[in-house]
Amino acid sequence: MAGETLARKxxxxxxxxxxxxxxxxxxxxxxxLHEVNTPEAFxxxxxxxxxxxxxDLTVGTEDHTTPTVAGSGGDPVTRRYRTLMADNCAExxxxxxxxxxxxxxxxxxxxxxxxxxxxxxxxxxxxSHTTTLGAYGALAFGIxxxxxxxxxxxQTLPMARPKDMAVTVTGSLPAGVTAKDLVLALxxxxxxxxxxxxxxxxxGDAVTGLSMEGRLTLCNMAVEMGARAGMVAPDDVTFRxxxxxxxxxxxxxxxxxxxxxxxxxxxxxxxxxxLRPHVSWGTNPGQCVPIDASVPDxxxxxxxxxxxxxxALRYMDLRPGVAMRDIAVDVVFVGSCxxxxxxxxxxxxxxxxxxxxxxxxxxxxxxAKVRRQAVEEGLDRVFAEAGADFxxxxxxxxxxxxxxxxxxxxRAASTxxxxxxxxxxxxxxxxxxxxxxxxxxxxxxRLAAPDDL
Length: 453
Ligand SMILES: CC(C)[C@H](C(=O)O)[C@@H](O)C(=O)O
Ligand code: SF4
Known about the structure:
Aconitase, domain 3, five-stranded parallel β-sheet, 3 domains, binds 3-isopropylmalic acid
């Protein structure tokens, strides 16, 4: 038998039944839920008179709409989402990590913290950035509301098997260059549709050399290159991040790794040796340049991308030829499921230590646990002394503009994953950056890397 990929092995071990229409019925090991996109799924269950098949394999959190300032309670519209979520979880017996609890946070950040994620699992969630969890060698993907209902009712999901893509990154990341820069560069090179219909396995020395947190950042943005899921093969780095790993676990997880003779449907190669910090100039994550470059001229793009570039520059209020380093921002945001883990906050704090921010700087931890750890390490003081606003409560915050948001016309350097029009607030402009670039930008008031300070 020909060799198999990691994704294929995980898939095969979860097939309950091969369907007649080409879909497989997959067993789902874990379903995660948040307050957006789930009310309809529960309503559907209720209408059909069904219960949740495995409440013990289902976990909810509140993150998208939660306020980040203690005691604010949030506005009535977003409160309604959370009331509905709490009522639904109570009615169907699903554990819920609520605002104010020690375990609450962004769904993709708390799932590993709670020990819910192990290599080889199938994991779904009503959220496109579920790809994040593939960093552990799990097959994790976002699903829509009707699929959420299906999984709630049956703990299975009919799905067409995705194709396999390998993204092999050779070399090692230069100093000051992070997983975020790598993934922005990859998406810019390959395009936002490159991964469509595929599970992407990130491989190569530059990937295995990443910390767990770096791998989470990388897989988080697999969906921004159009992929169904992103994965990194489980190795010693992975095992160190898991509790209670036995020899048998390790042996099984190692056996899931892609076989030498496995063939991918699509392969991309990239060398990380000369990579520089990357910054987006446009309105999709594939519109980035190295920070040393200038805003590109749409005329330089092929027909397929020119109109989008022109439109993006209009929305972003940028002219071709302007040096990225000359772009002044109003706000810096460090947070989101892409970059709000402890390592991200440490990087930002290292840059801010002993310096002052020149613009409004908001730091929102990905989870209550991340915040506690940051306080233990004294990062809260570093942020305060730099004049940055380290929020009391975790959540998606300014990433999606449901709770906290930018004002119309404001420009932000943001460690998030989407720079779409209006994403961080109506009329707001987003430059996607790493935590290091975000912090340097906060100090300088214009896009900057730590080297510039
Ligand atoms: C609201 C939610 C469904 C959405 C997603 O699917 O990703 C959000 O998390 C996002 O990042 O755009
Ligand atoms: S932090 Fe942003 S990208 Fe992540 S789940 Fe929340 S809204 Fe989506």
